[in-house]
Amino acid sequence: MEPRKRMEYLAGELLRHQHLYYVLARPEVSDAEYDRLLDELLQLEMRFPQYASANSPSRRVGSDLDNSFPERPHAVPVLSLDKLYQPQEAAQWLRKTAAACGNEPGFTVEEKIDGASIVLYYDRGELQYALTRGNGLVGNDVSANVRTIGQVPLRIAETSSLAVRGEIYITRGDFAAFNAGLPEKYANPRNLAAGSLRNLKSALAARVPLNFFAYEGFFPAGREGRPGESSGRDHLEILHRLAGLGFRVHPRPGFFCDSEARRERALQLFPEATVAPLSAVEDHLRRLGEARASVPYDIDGLVIKLVEMDMRQELGFTTHHPRWAMAYKFDSPQARSELLDVQVQVGRNGRVTPVAVLKPVQLSGSTVTRATLHNQDYIDMLELGIGDQVGISKRGDVIPAVEEVLDKSVASPSVYRLPENCPFCATRLVKEGAHHFCRNEECPERRRRALSYFCAREQMDIETLGEKTIAFLFARGWVRTVPDIYSFDVERLHGEEGFKERKIARIRASVEASRKQPFARVLAALGFEGVAAAVVAALIAHGFDDIDKIIAAAARNDWQAFAAVEGIGEATARQLVGHFSAPANLETIARLRAAGLQFRAEGAAPERVDDSLVGQVWVITGSFARFNPRSLAADEIRKRGGRVAESVTARTTHLLAGASAGSKLAKAEKLGVAVVSEDEFLSLLRKNQTK
After folding, report:
1. Residue 514 confidence class, pLDDT cut points 50, 70, 90
2. What are the residue ranges spanned by the domains of the chain?
C-alpha cells in the first residue's frame, strides 16, 4: 500500500480505536497493538510530512467525550504521556532530563493504574464538579456519579480553588465478584470503571465498588487564583498536602535524586517510600515490573515525573505530552508460533468461543499450546487464518492470547470462519452482539458443561467428578442432567476401567457430602444465566432466603421484587422470573430438593412483619444485651424490609451500635450515618409494632 493511503488507513483505525476505548469502554485491541499502529503512523508522518493531516490522531490526546453528559472546559492541563517500553530507555530519558535541569533534580516513580482518569474541582472547601479527561481541553461532567465514591472527599479543609487529578479504578477481587453477577460481562476492571462513570443514573454507579487515587494537585499560586499553577515547591510536597486533606495517594512512591538531603526529606514526607540515587532507577523499574501481579489492582506501567515545579514550567509541553514526565509501559512477554487449528467451544449457556491450537512455544516459563480468540469479530480484525505465524502474549501475565498476525500463510491465505452450525448438535448458531450462541438447550455439549460447572470446586465442590469422569458418565448415558448425579447408582462403576473400589467409595462420599452444601452454593451451581454467586448473595441478603420465595415471586411475574434488590437491575430481574418459572428448571429444583439438597438458607429470616425499614441499609457493630448473637438484630431488620450490610459505606443509612463499637462507629459519624443504640432500636421495634 502506498504511503498516503496507508497513513489514511492508520489514522482512521486509530480514531476508531480511540472511540472504542475512551467512549464505549470496549477496546478491540491490546495496548501493545494500538501503540504499534500509532508508532507506524508517526514514522510515516516523519518520512512523508506532506501527507500528514492536521487532524491526525498522533497530534491530539485520545478523547472520551460522550454527548450524554454536559461538557465543561478544563482549568488545568490534561495531556497524555509519552511512552517507553524498556528500563534502559527510561533510565536514559531520566538522565537526559536531569542534565537539562541541572542542580540535582529529583524524580518520582509511581504506579500507572489502569482505570478511568478524572479531574476533581474544588472551591471554598466543596467539590464543585468532576470531569473526565475528554480531549484534554474539555471533559464530560460526571459529578453525580463521582460523588457516590466514598474515597472522593466532598468537603476539604482548603478554602482556595483546587484541582485534583487522579484515577478511578476497581480492584481485581471486587471486579471478579461484581462482574460475576452481570448478564453482560465486562472484559476487565478498567472497562467497568469507565462504564460506571457514564451511568445515567448515579444510583447504578453507587453499586459499583469504585476506588480513587490522587496523583496530581493544582493549588493556585496566588491567594485567589484559579487552580492552574501549583503553589507547592515540588511534587512530593503536593502529594503530602493532598493526603493531609483526605485524598488517597500512593503511600510508597519511588524517589530518585543524587542529593542525600533531599532523599532524607522524601522519607520524612513518605516513610514507606523507596529512595535512591538516579543510577538505581533502572533496577527499580525492573523490580516493580516483576512484582506487579502482587498489586490488588491492574497497573499497566509506571510514571516517572520530575518533582520540581519551577523546572517543569521551564521544560514545558509539546502539543501531546509534558516534557517532564514519561510513562514506562509494561510490555507483555510475546512469543512467535504457528496457528495449527481453531477449536470451537460451547459453554453451558450456549456461548461459542473459538480457541487457537498452536505449535507449542515457551512463554513466561510455561509451554503454550492454546490461546483465546474471543469471537469472530476479533478473528476478522486480526485477519487470522490457519497456518499463519502469530504473536502470542500472556494478558495480565496469565491468559495466553493471539495478539497479531506476523506472517500470513501462503498455502492458506484466507481468514478463518466459525461454522454456521453447532459442531455438537448441528443447531444453527445465532450471533448476538459480538458473540455466537447455540440456543439449543438440549445440546449435549451444553449439558455436559453444565454438569462440570455444577460439580466444580467453586460450586458444589464434588472433587471426584472432574471433567474426565463427567465425560465418561455422560457418554455412557448414566448422568445426563444435574439431578442424575444424586440418583445414579455408583455401584455400576464396578468393573469399569479406571474405577477401583477406593475411587468408587470416594465418589460416593463426595456426592453425599455435597447434599450439605448451603443454599447459596446450590442456587449458584444451577448455572442459570445471570444468577452467579454475587446475585445469589444479594437475593439472600434481601430476604429471598428460601427457594419457595423466589419461585413465588417468579410465578407472579413480579420482576420488580427482584429489581428492588441492591445490585440487580431490570434485565437480571426479568431473567430471574424466566429461570424460576420455566417448567424444566422447576422440575430440576424439585428433583434436587427430593435428593436432599439445601433450598433454604440457614437462619433464614421469617416472613415479613411490616415495611417500616424498607429502603434502609443497616450495619451492626459492637455487643448487645438483648441481641446475642447479633444475627437476632439482623433478623428483626430483615423482617421489616431493611437490608443488613457488613461495612459502613456511603449507602449506609443506620448503624446499630452496641458496646465497644470501634472503627465502624467512627466511620459512620464521619459519613453522617444515623447511629442507633440498642435501647433506641428496641423502642423503634415496639413503636412500629404498635402502629
Report:
1. very high
2. 3-59, 71-329, 334-437, 444-514, 519-594, 617-690
